Recover the amino acids of this structure.
């Protein structure tokens, strides 16, 4: 099987051929049955069958589970792209974290590594860390760099997905004006690079592997040290004219409220982010704490931490109620590291949502109720979404 | 030319044939050139040319301007459906108004009549008024009832566009549980009836004839005695799982604020609707006032009314800023009767929007700035949108 061939099927205008459409669909979705492929591509079953026979003969497509394309619960007849056919890299450039995931085209994660940095690190520092994390990722893999099909970068600030340039200052002032392709291009030697902000990548992760699989219309609502989110409509992640769609944390509740780090006053983020509760826990315990520590202590029965998380659910529910009145969405995926607290967060969140939104649970039949689902990712899934940027055909087929 | 034939082209699954696609596109868009038709349908120019020749020969399509298909500023070669080919009726069932518009398939309005009622009128009263307004509408027209192709109903409350049944109580408690098709069907004798709420109809009017022509992604933001709106994404009006999308007036700013008529507290509507300013003007002048009176007095130089409108712009801008942070939209069409105040409203609105939204005008290049456009409709255009529900192919082609 020819990697060059797969590359051209994934990157060139190959959607016109049935082979191109099938390869791209497998790349975007992972393991699929022939029936699912026919439904998703709109091709006749006989065409799908002929093309699949050809793709299996050339070893580009294999049965899921064979060739190390493991995974549980897949249908017996599921097919994937041959994991040997190529790899993708996802990179998260977050506020205080750089993460690198190496995955193959069958959607198997080969390596997932992170480095934690102080805020406001420079692009040069980032490049250094990315180089190191990628060298580590390839350690001990039989997959070599020559099979790399594309790189996705999730950025903790507004980035233009077309040009790869940072828009506005956003939450990462040291990256203002940075050109992600120019910065990271030399590491990857001509391999295509795709970018989007981390919330949009989180949404791609949710629709590809997460709680929004099979949904074309949903909202991601992130509760973490910041409040954020993303909007998916008709299978598209809405980006906004200046990359600012889904900035739920920056709706102004009280124009005379406390100043927000965005420059405005009284934003939802001021009331519902976990920054202040985290500081409160540090004052209480007299030591430095991470968000995950608070969640762990709360789950272990600590009343102070439990109260902080319940209050975060209550405050977050106000914001979510507002999102509910704007969208009346079918599905909200609640994301961010607070979700690890499980029901301790979700119950007060759901109750507060119900009180603060227009359409009440009790006023509509079951089928017309908004579903709140916790994310299945332990963080917000953004780095997996960066992998998804590549697998979903470079933003061209499904995004 | 055969009306039966046009009916079947518009209502049956005729999108598979080039003729069906062209007829439906002309119905949705009004006057178009052959080049525009080719672009919108995706058909080859030669196919379009052949079909148009046939349609003109059978008199179903005529040159715009001929056969009373008047209108200014249309391109010389523009074609429309023959106005004789059929008519549509749009009905607005508003909080205090019933409106009926009769239009032909070339998009010419033949009659536009309203009746004003006290709030909480009954469906029986509405039927009586609609019968009378429709009889008046046909008076003196050469178009008879036999050419009626469809009826669109814009409702001032949440209605299921598929079933035609009212959802939840919403703003029209006397209509709870009403079935619009059952109620109005007998007037129209089997003609198809299409429904949507008035904000969604306003959005259809804006994209068909208004400030959002040529836009597939925009927000309608309505400032009137209530605050509301609609969301259009990828050419679809978002409806929400329980018909509650776009209820911008019911985002809760302050959970401890004054009670809202929706049952929650501190909704945007409490602060930014024109109900309280209108009451204030009535106290000031010591007489009953309509919203239009306040606008007229303000435009005539009255300082009190001017201040009320400027304050409404300021309060509305807070809400719009919030919508801006959620969507970072390309275009917002500002709608509702306050828009008649022109710059007196739009200037403070734009200034307040800028202060209350995340992405500031000055932080992004021209091409990345949200555009605020006043609606061209003197009310919110909902009744024209009801006509649009029919013309846009019964919600099937473009919505």
């Amino acid at each position: 099987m020819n990697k060059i061939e797969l590359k051209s099927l994934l990157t060139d205008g190959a959607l016109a051929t049935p082979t191109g459409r099938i390869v791209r669909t497998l790349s975007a979705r992972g393991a699929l049955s022939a029936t699912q492929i026919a439904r998703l591509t709109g091709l006749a079953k006989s065409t799908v069958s002929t093309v699949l026979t050809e793709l299996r003969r050339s070893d580009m497509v294999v049965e899921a589970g064979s060739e190390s394309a493991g995974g549980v619960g897949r249908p017996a007849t599921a097919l994937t792209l041959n994991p040997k056919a190529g790899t993708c890299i996802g990179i998260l450039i977050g506020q205080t974290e750089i993460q690198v995931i190496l995955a193959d085209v069958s959607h198997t994660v080969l390596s997932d590594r992170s480095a934690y940095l102080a805020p406001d690190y420079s692009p040069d520092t980032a490049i250094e860390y990315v180089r190191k994390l990628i060298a580590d990722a390839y350690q001990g893999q039989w997959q070599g760099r020559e099979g790399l099909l594309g790189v996705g970068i999730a950025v903790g600030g507004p980035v233009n997905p077309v040009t790869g340039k940072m828009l506005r200052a956003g939450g990462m002032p040291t990256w203002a004006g940075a050109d992600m392709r120019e910065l990271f291009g030399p590491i990857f030697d001509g391999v295509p690079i795709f970018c989007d902000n981390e919330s949009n990548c989180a949404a791609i992760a949710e629709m590809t592997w997460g709680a929004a699989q099979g949904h074309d219309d949903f909202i991601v609502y992130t509760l973490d040290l910041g409040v954020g989110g993303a909007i998916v409509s008709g299978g598209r992640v809405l980006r906004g004219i200046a990359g600012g769609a889904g900035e739920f944390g920056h709706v102004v509740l009280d124009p005379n409220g406390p100043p927000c780090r965005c420059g405005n006053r009284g934003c939802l983020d001021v009331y519902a982010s976990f920054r202040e509760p985290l500081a409160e826990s540090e004052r209480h315990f007299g030591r430095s704490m991470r968000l995950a520590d608070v969640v762990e202590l709360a789950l272990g029965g600590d009343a102070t931490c439990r109260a902080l998380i319940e209050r975060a659910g209550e405050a977050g529910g106000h914001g979510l109620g507002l999102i509910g009145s704007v969208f009346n969405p079918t599905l909200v995926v609640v994301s961010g590291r607070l979700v690890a607290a499980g029901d301790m967060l979700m119950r007060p969140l759901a109750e507060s949502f119900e009180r603060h939104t227009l359409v009440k649970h009790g006023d509509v039949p079951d089928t017309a109720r908004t579903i709140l689902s916790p994310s299945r990712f332990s963080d917000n899934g953004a780095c997996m979404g960066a992998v998804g940027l590549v697998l979903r055909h470079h933003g061209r087929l499904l995004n």
Summary: The two ends of chain B are 28 Å apart (CA to CA). The longest strand of chain B covers residues 97-104. Residues 161 and 195 of chain B are 5 Å apart (CA to CA).
